[in-house]
Each structure stands twice: as C-alpha cells, then as structure tokens.
TrEMBL record:
A Pfam family that the UniProt record links to this protein: DUF4230
Protein's UniProt name: DUF4230 domain-containing protein
Origin organism lineage: Bacteria, Bacillati, Actinomycetota, Actinomycetes, Bifidobacteriales
UniProtKB keywords: Membrane, Transmembrane, Transmembrane helix
InterPro entries, alphabetized: DUF4230
Residue intervals passing through the bilayer: 6-28
Length: 204
C-alpha cells in the first residue's frame, strides 16, 4: 500500500439534522398531547425520550472526503500487460451514532434527563468509481479499461479507506458533534418542562 500524499480532508457537521430532530420531538409531543391531556405538572418519562431518539435512528455527525493510492503487484489485480501498477482513488466516509442504542434516565427528583450516547462508528465507506486512475511504474497514466477486475480494485480501495478512517480523528469528531447536536435539540424542550439535559458518551 502506498503512502498518501497531501490530504484534502473535510470534516463536515450535518447541521440540518438538528432542525429535523427538534421538529420530530415537537411533533411527537403535540401528538401525545392530543391523546393525553396535559397534567398540572409536566412529566417526561424515559420511554418518551427513548422513542423520540429511536425515530431518528442513525445520526450522521461527521464525514471525511479524502484520496489515496494503492500499489498492486502481479497476482493482486489482473491486468492485461503490466505486472505492477498504482491506483489512485477518492472516497467519502460517514460516521455517526445509533440513537436507538442511547441509554436514557429521567430523574424526577432532580428534574434531570441523563442521555448516554453510544460511541460513534463508521456508517458508510464509498469509493467513487469515476475517480479511479491507474499509473504504471513510470508514473504514466494508462487506460483503466485494461484492468480486468475493476470490482476487486474497488474492494481493495474501500478496505484501505476504512483502515485510514479508523485511525483518523473522524470518529472523535463524530462523538463530539453527536453530543452537541443532542444537547442543542433537547435542552430547550426539556427546559420548557422544567428539566435540564445531561449528555455524555459511553466509555466503550
């Protein structure tokens, strides 16, 4: 596997998800109010918070766009007439948390909602087939159609990209942003009922 040249890394927060989360939570509460008339004292239960989080499922909080090089020798990827060549590719990796696995505890005595989020994981790794470029040992570009097993080449690129991401700061950034997003989405709503929200990440 060849070393990567200067990276063009982009870590982007999916900000729009905050709006979606708030809208979903408010909608859920309004529907609940139709079938359950308001009590004198507002009440938030673990079940209510859990259902609200589960409706969002996987929350993408960070993504990384990058590129890499893969070196192939004879026997790795079939090629018509070259024993050794290098493949260039670009990829996108998304990371986030599964909100359905969040642990929620509602403490009525302290009016506190404690939400423990699972650690972020890689949600998807995609390699752009149109970005594939092949070079021979003399660094000259040649026709990618001469590679007889493009699917296998893509498989190698995807595996390599996954390995790079697991060693990068992407997962840490996804953890950080997930915590901030859930806090921003729940704090105003919980405050309206006299609660405060505490969001933390699981140790594992």
């Amino acid at each position: 596997m060849g070393s990567m040249s200067t990276k063009a890394k982009v870590i982007a927060i999916i900000v729009a998800v905050v709006v979606i989360m708030v809208g979903t939570i408010i909608g859920y509460r309004k529907i609940g109010g139709i079938f359950n008339p308001k009590k004198a004292e507002p009440e938030i239960t673990t079940t209510i918070v859990s259902r609200q989080l589960q409706t969002m499922q996987d929350l993408t909080t960070a993504k990384e766009n990058d590129y890499g090089f893969e070196e192939f020798s004879e026997g790795n990827i079939a090629h018509v007439n070259k024993k050794k060549f290098t493949m260039f590719y670009s990829y996108e990796i998304r990371a986030g948390v599964d909100l359905a696995k969040a642990e929620i505890k509602v403490h009525d005595d302290t009016r506190t909602i404690s939400i423990t989020l699972p650690k972020a994981t890689l949600q998807s790794v995609s390699v752009d087939p149109d970005s594939l470029r092949f070079f021979d040992s003399e660094s000259s570009l040649f026709n990618g159609n001469e590679v007889t097993d493009t699917a296998e080449a893509l498989k190698h690129a995807k595996k390599s990209a996954s390995g790079k991401a697991s060693k990068s700061e992407l997962l840490q950034e996804a953890d950080k942003q997930a915590k901030q997003i859930v806090e921003k989405a729940y704090s105003p709503i919980a405050k309206a009922d006299g609660y405060k929200v505490q969001v933390q990440l699981a140790n594992k």
